[in-house]
Amino acid sequence: MSFTLAIVGRPNVGKSTLFNRLVGKRLALVDDTPGVTRDLREGDARLGDLRFIVIDSAGLELAEDDSLQGRMRRLTERAVEEADICLFVVDARVGVTPADEIFADILRRKNANVILAANKAEGSAGEAGALEAWSLGLGEPMQISAEHGLGMDELYHVLRPMA
Ligand code: GDP
Ligand code: MG
């Protein structure tokens, strides 16, 4: 038996970049335009000797269009329901935003099993933002860089007991 990991978080934090790194194929669409991935994508992930299912979830858009916002919230909730564990990604370079706090509330309300990751933590530009992520009340933020492959060993050790 394996497990399912859902990558959740607001648009543009690097969810699809991490999904692609874990799946090793460019299944998810990565774009500089926030919110470009608006669906759930599933892939077979490998991390060291771990094999699991990963879901790249859409972010919650704080759009004017309520129907879009509602749809993305529902997609996120669906990803949470399908997953054994959620990797909640925030942007270490931006710090905690109101949208991140809405996500934290969704995850808490859903009683999700959450790993918090501050992405884009390569270099020193992410230090303050990564520390700020403690304020979400979801435990210690893991510092990762999906683009540069940093923090993957720590992610491995956190996921290992799930396998
Ligand atoms: P998503 O909307 O959460 O799926 O985010 P994407 O994966 O599409 O990434 C959004 C932007 O952040 C893209 O320009 C990525 O290249 C960039 N990005 C992703 N991961 C990192 C990282 O670890 N470091 C930096 N500096 N940029 C990243
Ligand atoms: Mg995406």
For this entry, give a set of tags.
163 residues, alpha/beta, 6 strands, 21% strand, binds guanosine-5'-diphosphate, binds magnesium ion, GTPase Der
Please explain how this structure is put together.
- The protein is built from five helices and six strands.
- The chain is α/β, with parallel strands linked by helices and 163 residues long.
- The protein has a six-stranded mixed sheet with strand order 2-3-1-4-5-6, sandwiched between helices.
- The termini are close together.
- Guanosine-5'-diphosphate binds next to helix 1.
Biggest pleated sheet: 6 strands, mixed
**SS-derived structural category:** alpha/beta
Count of alpha/pi helices: 5
Report the principal-axis shape.
globular
- Tell me the fraction of residues in β-strands, as a range: 15-25%
Please state the CA-atom Rg, rounded to the nearest Å: 14 Å
What is the percent of helical residues?
Answer: 25-40%
| Residue runs with pLDDT of under 50 for 5 or more positions | none
Which whole number gives the mean pLDDT? Answer: 86
**Termini gap:** 7 Å
Q: Give helix and strand order, one letter per element, not per position.
A: EHEEHEHEHEH
| Strand order of the biggest β-sheet | 2-3-1-4-5-6
Oligomeric state of the chains in view: single chain
Q: How many individual β-strands?
A: 6
What binds here, in terms of ligands, is: guanosine-5'-diphosphate, magnesium ion
